[in-house]
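Entry 14. Structure prediction run on the chain below.
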Amino acid sequence: MNKRVICLMGPTATGKTEMAMRIADQFPVQIISVDSAMIYRHMDLGTAKPDAETLAQYPHKLINICEPTERYSTAEFRRDANIAIEESFAAGKIPLLVGGTFLYFQSLLEGISPIPSVSDTILTKLNDHLEAEGSIALHEELLQVDPESGARLNPNDSQRVLRALSVYHETGKPLTYFWSLPKKAGIEYPFIKLALANNNEKKRNAQIAHRYQKMIQAGLVEEVFNLRKKYPELNLDYPSMRAVGYRQIWNYLEDETTLEEAIELAIIATRQYAKRQRTWLRRETDLVTFDVEAENYPKNVLSTIEQFIS
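Output returned:
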Protein backbone atom coordinates (compact mmCIF):
# COMPACT_ATOMS: atom_id res chain seq x y z
CA MET A 1 0.00 0.00 0.00
CA ASN A 2 1.22 3.46 -0.93
CA LYS A 3 1.06 5.06 2.53
CA ARG A 4 0.08 8.71 2.37
CA VAL A 5 -1.74 11.09 4.70
CA ILE A 6 -4.32 13.73 3.79
CA CYS A 7 -4.77 16.80 6.00
CA LEU A 8 -7.90 18.95 5.67
CA MET A 9 -7.78 22.11 7.73
CA GLY A 10 -9.45 25.50 7.85
CA PRO A 11 -11.07 28.09 10.10
CA THR A 12 -14.29 27.31 11.94
CA ALA A 13 -17.52 27.24 9.91
CA THR A 14 -15.88 26.60 6.53
CA GLY A 15 -17.51 23.18 6.01
CA LYS A 16 -14.61 20.85 6.86
CA THR A 17 -16.85 18.05 8.14
CA GLU A 18 -19.07 18.15 5.05
CA MET A 19 -16.02 18.11 2.76
CA ALA A 20 -14.53 15.20 4.72
CA MET A 21 -17.70 13.20 4.09
CA ARG A 22 -17.52 13.96 0.37
CA ILE A 23 -13.94 12.72 0.35
CA ALA A 24 -15.00 9.57 2.23
CA ASP A 25 -17.68 8.94 -0.40
CA GLN A 26 -15.04 8.83 -3.12
CA PHE A 27 -11.90 7.47 -1.46
CA PRO A 28 -11.17 4.72 1.13
CA VAL A 29 -10.30 7.08 3.96
CA GLN A 30 -10.42 6.90 7.75
CA ILE A 31 -11.41 10.27 9.21
CA ILE A 32 -9.28 11.33 12.19
CA SER A 33 -10.46 14.40 14.07
CA VAL A 34 -7.95 17.19 14.75
CA ASP A 35 -10.15 19.23 17.07
CA SER A 36 -9.38 20.11 20.68
CA ALA A 37 -13.08 20.49 21.56
CA MET A 38 -14.58 17.42 19.86
CA ILE A 39 -12.43 15.19 22.09
CA TYR A 40 -14.86 15.83 24.96
CA ARG A 41 -17.89 13.66 25.65
CA HIS A 42 -21.28 15.35 26.13
CA MET A 43 -20.08 18.47 24.30
CA ASP A 44 -21.84 17.96 21.00
CA LEU A 45 -23.79 21.01 19.88
CA GLY A 46 -21.30 23.75 20.76
CA THR A 47 -18.43 21.89 19.11
CA ALA A 48 -20.41 21.24 15.89
CA LYS A 49 -19.68 17.55 16.40
CA PRO A 50 -21.23 15.23 13.81
CA ASP A 51 -24.36 13.59 15.20
CA ALA A 52 -24.61 9.89 16.03
CA GLU A 53 -26.19 9.00 12.69
CA THR A 54 -23.41 10.75 10.78
CA LEU A 55 -20.70 9.15 12.92
CA ALA A 56 -22.24 5.72 12.28
CA GLN A 57 -21.94 6.31 8.53
CA TYR A 58 -18.65 8.22 8.66
CA PRO A 59 -16.69 7.01 11.72
CA HIS A 60 -14.27 9.53 13.22
CA LYS A 61 -11.30 8.64 15.38
CA LEU A 62 -10.31 10.91 18.33
CA ILE A 63 -13.85 12.12 19.01
CA ASN A 64 -15.44 11.56 22.45
CA ILE A 65 -12.23 10.30 24.06
CA CYS A 66 -12.15 12.54 27.18
CA GLU A 67 -14.42 13.66 29.98
CA PRO A 68 -14.87 17.47 30.15
CA THR A 69 -12.93 17.42 33.43
CA GLU A 70 -9.88 15.80 31.84
CA ARG A 71 -6.85 17.63 30.51
CA TYR A 72 -5.52 16.46 27.15
CA SER A 73 -2.15 17.69 25.94
CA THR A 74 -0.78 18.27 22.48
CA ALA A 75 1.71 15.47 23.14
CA GLU A 76 -1.15 13.10 23.95
CA PHE A 77 -2.88 14.07 20.72
CA ARG A 78 0.32 13.41 18.77
CA ARG A 79 0.59 9.95 20.35
CA ASP A 80 -3.06 9.08 19.69
CA ALA A 81 -3.03 10.45 16.15
CA ASN A 82 0.02 8.37 15.25
CA ILE A 83 -1.76 5.28 16.60
CA ALA A 84 -4.88 6.15 14.59
CA ILE A 85 -2.80 6.61 11.44
CA GLU A 86 -1.20 3.18 11.82
CA GLU A 87 -4.61 1.61 12.51
CA SER A 88 -5.92 3.22 9.34
CA PHE A 89 -3.12 1.81 7.23
CA ALA A 90 -3.60 -1.62 8.82
CA ALA A 91 -7.27 -1.49 7.77
CA GLY A 92 -6.34 -0.55 4.22
CA LYS A 93 -7.51 3.04 4.69
CA ILE A 94 -5.96 6.41 3.91
CA PRO A 95 -5.74 8.62 7.04
CA LEU A 96 -7.74 11.82 6.55
CA LEU A 97 -6.95 14.29 9.34
CA VAL A 98 -9.69 16.90 9.62
CA GLY A 99 -9.98 19.88 11.94
CA GLY A 100 -9.06 23.39 12.94
CA THR A 101 -6.71 22.89 15.90
CA PHE A 102 -3.54 23.87 14.09
CA LEU A 103 -1.24 23.31 17.05
CA TYR A 104 -2.29 19.65 16.89
CA PHE A 105 -1.49 19.55 13.17
CA GLN A 106 1.89 21.19 13.76
CA SER A 107 2.86 18.76 16.51
CA LEU A 108 2.04 15.80 14.30
CA LEU A 109 3.49 16.98 10.99
CA GLU A 110 6.56 18.88 12.21
CA GLY A 111 7.31 17.27 15.56
CA ILE A 112 7.09 18.62 19.08
CA SER A 113 9.47 19.84 21.75
CA PRO A 114 9.88 17.33 24.59
CA ILE A 115 7.90 19.26 27.21
CA PRO A 116 7.20 17.08 30.25
CA SER A 117 3.70 16.44 31.58
CA VAL A 118 2.60 18.19 34.76
CA SER A 119 1.11 16.50 37.82
CA ASP A 120 -2.52 17.06 38.80
CA THR A 121 -1.33 18.35 42.18
CA ILE A 122 0.55 21.25 40.60
CA LEU A 123 -2.26 22.00 38.14
CA THR A 124 -4.84 22.05 40.93
CA LYS A 125 -2.69 24.36 43.05
CA LEU A 126 -2.12 26.79 40.18
CA ASN A 127 -5.78 26.73 39.16
CA ASP A 128 -6.73 27.57 42.74
CA HIS A 129 -4.23 30.43 42.62
CA LEU A 130 -5.70 31.56 39.32
CA GLU A 131 -9.24 31.52 40.67
CA ALA A 132 -8.26 33.38 43.85
CA GLU A 133 -5.91 36.03 42.43
CA GLY A 134 -6.47 36.11 38.68
CA SER A 135 -4.30 35.73 35.59
CA ILE A 136 -2.31 38.93 36.19
CA ALA A 137 -0.89 37.54 39.46
CA LEU A 138 0.17 34.32 37.74
CA HIS A 139 1.76 36.31 34.93
CA GLU A 140 3.77 38.37 37.43
CA GLU A 141 5.12 35.15 38.94
CA LEU A 142 5.94 33.84 35.45
CA LEU A 143 7.94 37.00 34.70
CA GLN A 144 10.12 36.21 37.73
CA VAL A 145 10.87 32.57 36.89
CA ASP A 146 10.64 32.59 33.08
CA PRO A 147 11.07 36.17 31.81
CA GLU A 148 11.14 35.12 28.15
CA SER A 149 7.79 33.34 28.31
CA GLY A 150 6.39 36.11 30.49
CA ALA A 151 7.35 38.75 27.94
CA ARG A 152 5.89 36.70 25.08
CA LEU A 153 2.52 35.90 26.67
CA ASN A 154 -0.44 38.21 27.18
CA PRO A 155 -1.04 38.56 30.94
CA ASN A 156 -4.74 37.83 30.36
CA ASP A 157 -4.06 34.59 28.45
CA SER A 158 -4.59 32.49 31.56
CA GLN A 159 -4.36 29.14 29.77
CA ARG A 160 -0.88 29.70 28.33
CA VAL A 161 0.39 31.55 31.40
CA LEU A 162 -0.71 28.66 33.59
CA ARG A 163 0.88 26.15 31.22
CA ALA A 164 4.27 27.88 31.26
CA LEU A 165 4.18 28.32 35.02
CA SER A 166 3.13 24.70 35.61
CA VAL A 167 6.13 23.42 33.63
CA TYR A 168 8.43 25.51 35.82
CA HIS A 169 6.81 24.25 39.03
CA GLU A 170 7.11 20.66 37.79
CA THR A 171 10.71 20.78 36.57
CA GLY A 172 12.37 23.89 37.99
CA LYS A 173 13.20 24.91 34.42
CA PRO A 174 11.53 27.50 32.17
CA LEU A 175 9.38 26.45 29.25
CA THR A 176 11.86 28.06 26.86
CA TYR A 177 14.50 25.53 27.97
CA PHE A 178 12.43 22.66 26.61
CA TRP A 179 11.78 24.51 23.38
CA SER A 180 15.53 24.67 22.86
CA LEU A 181 15.83 20.86 22.93
CA PRO A 182 15.67 18.81 19.72
CA LYS A 183 12.10 18.12 18.61
CA LYS A 184 10.61 14.68 18.42
CA ALA A 185 10.38 13.79 14.73
CA GLY A 186 7.36 14.69 12.65
CA ILE A 187 5.25 12.28 10.66
CA GLU A 188 7.24 9.84 8.51
CA TYR A 189 4.76 9.52 5.64
CA PRO A 190 4.20 11.83 2.67
CA PHE A 191 1.30 14.19 3.38
CA ILE A 192 -0.68 16.92 1.68
CA LYS A 193 -2.13 19.96 3.44
CA LEU A 194 -5.47 21.15 2.08
CA ALA A 195 -7.23 24.20 3.52
CA LEU A 196 -10.75 25.53 3.10
CA ALA A 197 -11.14 29.30 3.19
CA ASN A 198 -14.01 31.75 2.97
CA ASN A 199 -12.60 35.02 1.69
CA ASN A 200 -15.95 36.84 1.72
CA GLU A 201 -15.96 38.56 5.12
CA LYS A 202 -19.67 39.41 5.04
CA LYS A 203 -20.69 35.86 4.20
CA ARG A 204 -18.35 34.16 6.65
CA ASN A 205 -19.52 36.39 9.49
CA ALA A 206 -23.13 35.66 8.58
CA GLN A 207 -22.36 31.94 8.46
CA ILE A 208 -20.76 32.02 11.93
CA ALA A 209 -23.77 33.86 13.36
CA HIS A 210 -26.24 31.54 11.67
CA ARG A 211 -24.42 28.43 12.85
CA TYR A 212 -24.33 29.59 16.46
CA GLN A 213 -28.02 30.50 16.39
CA LYS A 214 -28.74 26.98 15.15
CA MET A 215 -26.74 25.59 18.09
CA ILE A 216 -28.89 27.61 20.48
CA GLN A 217 -32.08 26.42 18.80
CA ALA A 218 -30.86 22.82 18.97
CA GLY A 219 -30.37 23.08 22.74
CA LEU A 220 -26.89 24.43 23.52
CA VAL A 221 -28.10 26.13 26.71
CA GLU A 222 -29.49 22.83 27.93
CA GLU A 223 -26.24 21.09 26.96
CA VAL A 224 -24.20 23.45 29.15
CA PHE A 225 -26.76 23.18 31.96
CA ASN A 226 -26.47 19.38 31.86
CA LEU A 227 -22.67 19.55 31.84
CA ARG A 228 -22.73 21.65 35.02
CA LYS A 229 -25.11 19.17 36.61
CA LYS A 230 -23.21 16.04 35.52
CA TYR A 231 -19.78 17.43 36.47
CA PRO A 232 -20.19 19.55 39.66
CA GLU A 233 -16.44 20.16 39.80
CA LEU A 234 -16.39 21.69 36.30
CA ASN A 235 -15.54 25.38 36.07
CA LEU A 236 -14.32 27.89 33.49
CA ASP A 237 -10.66 27.09 34.17
CA TYR A 238 -10.96 23.63 32.61
CA PRO A 239 -9.72 23.46 29.00
CA SER A 240 -13.07 22.02 27.88
CA MET A 241 -14.87 25.18 28.97
CA ARG A 242 -12.48 27.31 26.95
CA ALA A 243 -14.04 25.90 23.79
CA VAL A 244 -15.45 28.87 21.92
CA GLY A 245 -19.13 29.49 22.63
CA TYR A 246 -19.34 27.66 25.96
CA ARG A 247 -18.05 30.28 28.38
CA GLN A 248 -20.71 32.76 27.29
CA ILE A 249 -23.56 30.32 27.97
CA TRP A 250 -21.96 29.43 31.30
CA ASN A 251 -21.98 33.10 32.28
CA TYR A 252 -25.62 33.36 31.22
CA LEU A 253 -26.48 30.44 33.50
CA GLU A 254 -24.68 32.33 36.28
CA ASP A 255 -27.04 35.28 35.61
CA GLU A 256 -24.10 37.46 34.56
CA THR A 257 -25.65 38.25 31.15
CA THR A 258 -28.93 37.90 29.31
CA LEU A 259 -29.21 35.11 26.75
CA GLU A 260 -29.19 37.66 23.92
CA GLU A 261 -25.96 39.18 25.26
CA ALA A 262 -24.41 35.74 25.66
CA ILE A 263 -25.25 34.83 22.07
CA GLU A 264 -23.78 38.06 20.73
CA LEU A 265 -20.60 37.64 22.80
CA ALA A 266 -20.23 34.05 21.63
CA ILE A 267 -20.59 35.06 17.98
CA ILE A 268 -17.96 37.79 18.45
CA ALA A 269 -15.62 35.28 20.17
CA THR A 270 -16.12 32.80 17.32
CA ARG A 271 -15.26 35.45 14.72
CA GLN A 272 -12.12 36.35 16.67
CA TYR A 273 -11.17 32.67 16.88
CA ALA A 274 -11.65 32.28 13.13
CA LYS A 275 -9.45 35.33 12.57
CA ARG A 276 -6.66 33.73 14.65
CA GLN A 277 -7.04 30.56 12.60
CA ARG A 278 -6.73 32.50 9.34
CA THR A 279 -3.60 34.22 10.67
CA TRP A 280 -2.08 30.82 11.49
CA LEU A 281 -2.88 29.47 8.02
CA ARG A 282 -1.15 32.43 6.36
CA ARG A 283 2.08 31.24 7.99
CA GLU A 284 1.69 27.68 6.70
CA THR A 285 3.92 26.48 3.88
CA ASP A 286 3.02 24.04 1.08
CA LEU A 287 -0.68 24.65 1.70
CA VAL A 288 -3.23 24.05 -1.07
CA THR A 289 -6.13 26.43 -0.38
CA PHE A 290 -9.67 26.27 -1.75
CA ASP A 291 -12.17 29.12 -1.59
CA VAL A 292 -15.49 27.62 -0.46
CA GLU A 293 -17.29 30.34 -2.43
CA ALA A 294 -15.86 28.99 -5.69
CA GLU A 295 -18.43 27.14 -7.77
CA ASN A 296 -16.53 23.89 -8.26
CA TYR A 297 -14.41 23.84 -5.15
CA PRO A 298 -15.47 20.32 -3.94
CA LYS A 299 -14.61 18.89 -7.34
CA ASN A 300 -11.23 20.63 -7.21
CA VAL A 301 -10.52 19.23 -3.74
CA LEU A 302 -11.34 15.69 -4.90
CA SER A 303 -9.22 16.11 -8.02
CA THR A 304 -6.24 17.30 -5.95
CA ILE A 305 -6.54 14.27 -3.66
CA GLU A 306 -6.81 11.93 -6.65
CA GLN A 307 -3.53 13.28 -8.02
CA PHE A 308 -1.84 13.04 -4.61
CA ILE A 309 -2.73 9.43 -3.84
CA SER A 310 -2.15 8.15 -7.38
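Residues 259-283 form the longest helix (25 residues).
Filed with the rest of this week's runs.
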